[in-house]
Amino acid sequence: MGTGLLHSESFYKKEHIKASDEIRNLFKNGKKVSISGAKLFYLENDFDYNRIAFTLSRGYGNAVRRNASKRYSREIYRSLKKYLNTGYDLLLLIYPGNDSFSTRYFQFRSLCEKAGILKT
C-alpha cells in the first residue's frame, strides 16, 4: 500500500543536506531570519529544487524529544515545499519550547515568508 502522499509531497534524498561542510557554509554565509523558537538560514543554490537540513540547538531535550522535533520538521517541509520557490539551500535551527506540530508549522511558514521564499 502507498503512503498516500502525492509525488510532489515526497521528500527525496537529493533534498537532504548531510555534509557538515555544507551545513557550516549555511551557518557562516547564509542569510538568516528568525522568530521566537526557530531560525532559518538560506542560500541560493544552482539546482532547480531546494535542499534542507534540520538542526537543534544544544541542550535540546532527550533523544525522544529531538527525534520527534525533527520528524515534525521533515513532515512540515514535505507539506509546504510545493509552496516554496526553488533553488535554495535551507537550514532550520530549532530551539526548545512548544514542540507541537501546529506551532512548528507556523514557525516554518513564517520564516519562509520572512525570507521571501514562500510563493505568493
Give an overview of the whole structure.
Helices cover 36% and strands 21% of the residues. It is built from 3 helices and 4 strands. Strands 1-2-4-3 form a 4-stranded mixed beta sheet, sandwiched between helices. The protein is globular and about 35 Å long. The N and C termini lie far apart (35 Å).
What's the SSE pattern? Answer: HEEEHEH
**Averaged pLDDT:** 89
Please count the helical segments. 3
Share of helix, binned: 25-40%
List keywords for this structure.
about 120 residues; disordered N terminus; 4 strands; about 20% strand; globular
SSE topology:
Blueprint (H helix, E strand, L loop, with lengths): L19 H10 L1 E5 L2 E7 L6 E6 L6 H18 L7 E7 L6 H15 L5
Parallel strand pairs: 3-4
Antiparallel strand pairs: 1-2, 2-4
Helix pairs in contact: 2-3
Outline of the structure:
The protein has 120 residues and is of the alpha+beta class.
